Amino acid sequence: MTLEDDIGILAGVEIFEDFTPEQMRLLAFGTERLKYTIGRELYREGDVADSAYVVVSGIVALVRDTGAGRVVVSQCGRGSVLGELALIIETKRLTGAVATGDVEVVKLNRALFRRMLEEYPQAAAMLHRRLSLGLTSMIAKIESMAPKFQ
């Protein structure tokens, strides 16, 4: 795959859609392509999260380990971002991620991403706005479900 292919993949990701072509090129230049086969773990629940992954092809299962065994909580396909908050803050993985078949991902490093945001403050402002809107939406969904748990 070429740099242009990586730019195309990242351009389809919602959190990057306001980035300029120059910013997308810089972001794509610092990515790493990884391939996984069925059952291989991208990362484990509780691991330190220092990067995000964008699914290029295949399906990744997000899993939680429970006393009753491993439970699939979600499945993510092409264009999905895994661990996007790891690009901005130091955190731990809330779930594990396992390839359900042949999977290819683009790995984004936090250090490079933060450097890009420092060089392009307007990108940081757009990302802040997008994340704030996402958080507001999530809080509204949680509040709408609150009566079901009372």
Keywords:
150 residues; alpha+beta; Jelly Rolls; 4 helices; 10 strands; globular; cNMP-bd_dom_sf; RmlC-like_jellyroll; cAMP-dep_PK_reg_su-like
Explain what the structure shows.
With 150 residues, the chain is α+β, with helices and mostly antiparallel strands. It has helices spanning 3-11, 21-29, 110-119, 121-145; strands spanning 32-36, 41-43, 48-49, 51-57, 60-66, 69-76, 81-82, 91-92, 96-99, 103-109. It has one domain (3-148): Sandwich (Jelly Rolls), CATH 2.60.120. The protein has 4 helices and 10 strands; from the N terminus they run ααββββββββββαα. It has a 4-stranded antiparallel sheet with strand order 1-10-4-7. The protein has a 4-stranded antiparallel sheet with strand order 2-9-5-6, with no helix packed on it. Helix 1 crosses helix 2. The chain starts with a helix and ends in a 5-residue tail after the last helix.
